[in-house]
Amino acid sequence: MNGSRLISSTHIMINFKYPKEKEISLHYANAFSDLLVEKILNGTDVSNSDEALHLSKFYWEMVDALVEDASKNNLICGELNLQEWSELIFNSFRSYIRNAGFSTEWDKASDEN
């Protein structure tokens, strides 16, 4: 092997514990006009390092927006307690990205934040 990742033919989707996590994530993907993240949230696999890094950075941008919305008491997808949802989404995104073989990309985006 030359250090490249093995691409599995198995389709891996983000495994959200609650449907509301996906709903909130899609809300922000739409708000940011992020078509790649919308596709991933709707079932397209992350297929390379750039996409994994993009999704990881999206999470942290979403957290910033969640914090701002929470500070303004904005109702997002019927929710005011956005911190709790951000923690659940964190676990779902991190697990997905790591299981897809892109731990380095997740860690890089997390360190930059």
Structure in a nutshell:
By secondary structure, this protein is mostly helical. It has helices at residues 19-31, 35-41, 49-71, 82-99, 103-112.
Give a verbal description of the structure.
- The chain is built from five helices and no strands.
- It starts with 18 loop residues before the first helix and ends with a helix.
- With 113 residues, it is an all-alpha fold.
- The chain is 63% helix and 0% strand.
- Residues 1-9 have low confidence and may be disordered.
- It has one domain.
Task: Summarize the SSE layout with pairings.
Elements: H1 19-31, H2 35-41, H3 49-71, H4 82-99, H5 103-112
Helix pairs in contact: 1-2, 1-4, 3-4, 3-5, 4-5
Share of residues in helices: 55-70%
Strand content: under 5%
Taking Cα atoms only, what radius of gyration do you get, to the nearest Å?
14 Å
Query: How many strand segments?
Result: 0
Q: Give the N-to-C terminal Cα separation.
A: 33 Å
Structural category is mainly alpha
* Envelope shape: globular
